[in-house]
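Lecture notes, unit on protein representations.

Consider one protein chain, 109 amino acids long.
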Amino acid sequence: MLVSNPKNRYTAKDCMNHSWIKKFENSDYKPETMKKSLVNIEKFHAENKMQKATLSFIASQTISSEEKRQLFKQFEFWDTNKDGVLSRDEIYNGYKQLFGESLANENIV
């Protein structure tokens, strides 16, 4: 269903007739199970956000104001499209500028 070319994409009818969907028709599948799974996913997402916030707080407390300023300046320099997020290409190009082509290739997968 995620194929971008509509000619190669399953139709809704094809999806509903797929064996993976069919196996749930006569099973003990309960909607509560799906609800519980979605709640667990939401909890995981919230915990992940909390972990990121905690790590950001710890990092912000362990560096000086001057170091923060320099890191922010470097981030802005690498963020070439100014969207506030460093893409893989922006990070790669930043590494390449700092360390050269060979070290950038070793450090970024």
